[in-house]
Design brief:
The protein is α/β, with parallel strands linked by helices and 272 residues long. It has 2 domains: 150 residues, Rossmann fold, CATH 3.40.50.1000; 112 residues, Hypothetical Protein, Haloacid Dehalogenase-like Hydrolase, Chain: A, domain 2 (2-Layer Sandwich). Helices cover 33% and strands 26% of the residues. The chain has a 6-stranded mixed sheet with strand order 8-7-6-9-11-10. A hairpin with a 4-residue loop joins strand 3 and strand 4. The longest helix is centred in the middle third of the chain and has 13 residues.
Length: 272
């Protein structure tokens, strides 16, 4: 059985962060042919499910770069390799030193909480107003976070040079891994997500491959957090808009995400 894993942002989604009509129709053709597919994203489950609403994704899904696994059939949530209190404190200290607000994502009893300190920059408030406030997550002050809490990830946004400096510093910690990317096209802002070092899409893909008894894994992705699943995939594909390192690691480079590159490729690859 072929098992396909899609990254979302910059890959399956277009530049409006949507699944286009053409891509939706292509996924339906995959389903008609009994070709198994699911997602492996750095997004939180709650933010991704708004995008996936109305689309058929029946198989277990990977969120938070492998920390969160959601089985929609069993309604079962699994959390692995979360950040502990010490690791959370270390990340918060680095953020405070650089004048950046950390957004600590915590899942407790199937509820999503985002704990954060006071925002210091307009771009952080925009993140709350335009993104977090529209999700199912409950926003809480950082001081209200229980001391025993574990976090799936910690998100931040800021000027590119500041985030780059923090990214370099955080990646020197043995138990942490940080991913960065451009927040808005044409703007000098970057986002950053910090996870436990043992959390990865690759580890979660390996687990689901065994669970679903798949013989071949096919992956699509555009960012550094996709390299771990590219390394184990039988076939890996990067859209034209992907970073150069990702393109060089892929089996092949396909069309741009904003031009339904994956959908066009799938229709040819599987004769849909």
């Amino acid at each position: 059985m072929d098992l396909i894993f899609f990254d979302l942002d910059g890959t399956l989604l277009n530049d409006a962060s949507e699944i286009s009509t053409f891509t939706k129709e292509t996924l339906a053709l995959l389903q008609d042919k009994n070709i198994a597919y699911t997602i492996a994203t750095g997004r939180t489950m709650h933010s991704a499910q708004r995008i996936l609403a109305g689309h058929v994704f029946d198989l277990p899904q990977i969120y938070n770069n492998g920390v969160t696994l959601w089985d929609p059939q069993k309604q079962q949530l699994t959390l692995e390799n979360q950040l502990n209190h010490k690791e959370i404190s270390n990340i918060i200290d680095v953020a405070a030193t650089h004048g950046i607000t950390p957004f600590v994502n915590v899942i407790d009893a199937y509820k999503h909480f985002i704990f954060h300190s006071e925002t210091r920059h307009d771009i952080e408030q925009q993140l709350i107003d335009n993104y977090f406030s529209g999700s199912n997550a409950q926003l809480m002050p950082l001081a209200a976070m229980p001391s025993q809490s574990q976090a799936t990830n910690i998100s931040m946004i800021g000027h590119a040079q500041t985030i780059k400096s923090m990214w370099q510093e955080l990646n020197t910690h043995d138990q942490l891994v940080a991913y960065v990317g451009q927040a808005l096209a044409g703007n000098d802002f970057w986002w950053m997500d910090v996870h436990h070092q043992q959390a990865s899409k690759g580890a979660a893909v390996t687990s689901l491959k065994a669970q679903l008894d798949a013989s071949k894994v096919i992956c699509f992705g555009d960012g550094e957090n996709d390299l771990s699943m590219f390394a184990l995939a039988d076939e890996s594909y990067a859209p034209e808009n992907a970073k150069l390192e990702i393109k060089n690691s892929a089996t092949s480079v396909i069309g741009h995400n904003h031009q339904d590159g994956i959908a066009h490729f799938l229709r040819e690859r599987f004769s849909l």
